[in-house]
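Re-run with default settings, no changes from the original entry. Doing this only to confirm the output is reproducible before filing.
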Amino acid sequence: MECNEDIFLLKQFHFNIEKLTAALEEACDKIGYSGGAVNCISLTKMPGDHQEDPRGIYWTKPTSSGVEVQREGHVDESKYTEFEPRLIDGYFYDVYSELCRHYKIGRVRILKLNQRSTLSWHRDPEPRIHIPIVTNPGAIMVIDNFATHMPADGSAYFTNTRNYHVAFNGGEEARVHIVATVLEACV
């Protein structure tokens, strides 16, 4: 994988891909996905909240005018401090705990981008960490003008999604990543 300042390998992490795959199967069995083109399983939530995870604020340039517009509402990522109780004894909790040792983390979700689909060109208010679980060579992330494929091999990647970006899946199987919002790095 090629890297640049907007997408780079986080060398302090390496997770067991077999355990990630098994944990994904467990999450699908116990919770299942919600959503449309991008399906979601929330791994963190606000304490006491039982509602579906909101999409959260983002900005896009939807027309040829190039004028930026806001979509969705603000989500206070710092309030997503409770790990999903149905998965707390599984490997995803170990991954979450390890991420929290290095970063202050907001929402953590499993996001599935269906085959032959794409997101909109947009930017988010915070960067993200991506941990690919299932992917294919046609699953590409583009930030500004830099495009790369993140392999599902246990690696974790910092993505500066505060810049305009898109993910697309041109393959014939889903692209599934753990996506964690980074609020700040821990010292």
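Residues 7-47+68-185 form a domain with the Jelly Rolls fold (CATH 2.60.120.330). The longest strand covers residues 103-113.
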